[in-house]
Amino acid sequence: MEVESVIGVDGLEAKSEVTAEAQSKASLEVSKDGYEPIHSKSPVFFDLYQRKSELKHQTHYCPGCGHGVVHKLIAEALQELGLQDSTIFVSPVGCSVFAYYYFDVGNVQVAHGRAPASATAIKRSCPEKIVISYQGDGDLAAIGTAEIVHAANRGEKITVFFVNNGIYGMTGGQMAPTTLVGQKSTTSPWGRRPANEGFPLHMAELLATLEAPAYIERVALSDNKNIMKARRVIRKALEIQRDDAGFSFVEILSPCPTIWGKNPVEARRWVLEKMTPTFPLNVFRDRRPEVPTGDEPLQRTVGDVLEITPKTHLHNVSTTKRAYHFKNVTIKVAGFGGQGVLLLGQLLIEMGMREGLEVSWLPSYGPEMRSGSAHCHVCLSRERIGSPLVSRPDVLVAMNEFSLRKFASEVATGGLILYNGASVPADFSAPGAQVVGIPAAEIADKLGSTKAANIVMMGALLEETECLAPGTALSVLEDKVKKPDLLEIDRRALFAGRLFIDDNAHIGAVSQSDGFA
Amino acid sequence: MRQLCKGNVAVVKGAILAGCRAYYGYPITPASEIAESAALYFPQVGGTFLQAESEVAAINMVYGAAAAGTRVMTGSSGPGLSLMQEGMSYLAGAELPCVIVDVMRGGPGLGNIAPEQSDYFAMVKGGGHGNYRNIVLAPASVQEMAELTMLAFELADKYRNPAVVLADGFIGQMVEPLDLEYREIHPPEKSWAVKGTPETRANLVSSICLETDELEEHQRRMEAKYIRAQEAEPLCELCYTEDAEILLVGYGIVSRVLLSTVDALRKEGVKAGLFRPITLWPYPSKTLAKAARKVEKVIVVELSNGQMVEDVHLALNGKVPVEFYGRVGGNVPSVAELQQLVLTRMSAMV
Ligand SMILES: Cc1ncc(C[n+]2csc(CCOP(=O)(O)OP(=O)(O)O)c2C)c(N)n1
Ligand code: SF4
Description:
The complex is a heterodimer of chains A (about 525) and B (about 350). Chain A is α/β, with parallel strands linked by helices. In chain A, about 35% of the residues lie in helices and about 15% in strands. In chain A, the strands form three sheets. Chain A has a seven-stranded mixed sheet, with helices on both faces. A six-stranded mixed sheet of chain A has the order 11-12-10-13-14-15, sandwiched between helices. In chain A, helix 2 (about 65-80) packs across helix 8, helix 3 packs parallel to helix 5 and helix 4 (about 135-145) crosses helix 5 (about 145-155). The longest helix of chain A has 20 residues, at about 485-505. Chain B is globular and about 70 Å long. In chain B, helix 1 crosses helix 6 and helix 9 packs across helix 12. Chain B has about 350 residues and is α/β, with parallel strands linked by helices. The longest helix of chain B is centred in the middle third of the chain and has 21 residues, at about 210-230. Chain B is built from twelve helices and 15 strands. Chain B has a seven-stranded mixed sheet, with helices on both faces. Chain B has a five-stranded mixed sheet with strand order 10-12-11-14-15, with helices on both faces. Strand 2 of chain A pairs parallel with strand 9 of chain B. The complex binds thiamine diphosphate and iron/sulfur cluster. The site of thiamine diphosphate has 17 residues of chain A, from helix 4 and strand 5.
């Protein structure tokens, strides 16, 4: 490789027709090779680059830089297609960071590599508009690899112009993911060695492995013929977006004379001779993607979706009479996942809320649940609830022996432990708390579903503590359990739990047999 | 009508009520229900939900939607928020309004998923590069998860700045009654947004100010709006502070435990009070200073190794002794523990 590292702008006077085109009419001159350039400037460019602080009549790009050419081709295409007013141009971080100096369209400047992400959201906010993501190779193929792959994979209806100059221009010539094997840069001073830096990344080919993209082509700014080709391809990519046909991507092999240390003419030749063997020019994708359309979500009113329209079918809150024994109560429900531990807690607060109480429910969450055990904290209160965290529960509902042993010591003095088991383990004692064993699983089994054990426990809890009215429990179950057969089992489970306590009234702390059965 | 709702879900309900119609995010415990309920609700009300490929992408999607003038949000927890810092700096620099929810978990690193309040510095003091502020709101209930999210959208638009809802694992995961009323929201007209229309063609969204003077001027303007916010926006709650001899300070889940602690202490005849900042930035310093004027001691409780306590020190400026008590790792102090703490620290006073 004969590439030298960095700098050496030898071409300031060697202004080729290419850069001159992107510059203002004021700096017209006929190039030395006698070729008569067309110096008219697309109206998609500003007349004067007011956003620049100085030299407002010319671009900041180096002479012979491919960015200027690509800008011109994009501007012309937008003009031809009549898209100037409806275009949003997303500029990256890189030498083209200031694209908004030039393009008289809506402009959004974004973070390094993230243009496809920002463009995605812009397009989804403005689906009718033309959104262009313009990126260099560091921006797109290094720091922003994830964003481009995923935007392409989603088939975002945006157009990406990928300017591949094989180098980091803006930061002064560091290695890019597209730097050629052997090519020197300030961070590959011995030339790119695949053993250390890997091989050049072929973005067009890589994206062409995805299903969603509609159009992927690589072009080169190597000579007039190829530039004319690039012009057509850029226009086509924009047409695809205009026609709502899908994701379009154009990779443009582009000269960076400054960093490559070449004059503009040599640089263009270098694109053809050195870059195209590694990055062959080709159409990698040109077809409308087949995107299966699933069921579109039904549009509903905000009130309906958020369930903030009053529902009349729910049982009226205020008419449910609260059990007279009520005092503020804190409950911990614990057991294995699958025993309906969290659900039991949720049913209790639903009931509490319907009875006009303040309520809170706090679950164990995450990996703890994966290990198979779960618990939740329930507070029912007449007043505003302070801590939703129950460290000294009045009641522990232990759905298994593990929970019984683990949490019994937390129960408040004078508290109650309801244990899912006919008898409490012989070696277990909980000084200061009342322990009641309820063969909830067996009862539920007999009713037709072991899963209803939690409802049996709920019946027992309500009967024993009278913290909430059984009528409220029934109405909550009726609203929550959709399947009639399951609802029937739950109804009977609730009843059975209450009956069990009622039949064993002697063990209760506060309850007396009220003979509800 | 009251409905039971999980804190994380309430965020999304509040957002939709506030006219937010775009959500971009990446799942993480204990914030995932935000993304999940957004995925469920947004498409039904004509909004956009997209699961991004990372939090980096998510925050830059937020940037894009905000640039286009859409009310937009994202939600995550510690590790995700770390990834979003560059984007948040860009959002602040480009003066783009958006709402970011952080349901804090244990750190550093992967830490755990239990509640902590250790992202205070990152969210309140910055986190990203450069001179900027986040507006930061700290809900302490499910109701506030919705209401402060709504407020966050208002403030974000008012100041053209990101607003953060800073919750914790417990506030996000707990279920409480939520009372919401439907109201028509008319987000402000954003004439600066880039929408691909003739009227907005001249608009530019960017955080670049190449010239030193230009960037200084830009930052001075940002500072000016931050000063306005400091004057107008601080919010806090005071409980039993009039006759308090000892003032407990905490936010989020800690404030809930502290409220119970104050109740318990009052029953024992200890004159304790609670100061709960609701806006963490701007910090309600003036009200705190006033509330602490007559107290003998201030105790700050956090699920961190001492982050918000710095703002308490700044507010009180050495006039009242300030002590700190922190639990970390996901442990939340119990009422009994804090009660004991106060009693010991009180007895140390005499
Ligand atoms: C997060 C971040 N990292 C690094 C940079 C510095 N940086 C600015 S431009 C750039 C490389 C741009 O190269 P490329 O995308 O190839 O564009 P070119 O300048 O060659 O057109 C880098 C590394 C940055 N702005 N942000
Ligand atoms: S450094 Fe290279 S890419 Fe950047 S403006 Fe100059 S020629 Fe163009």
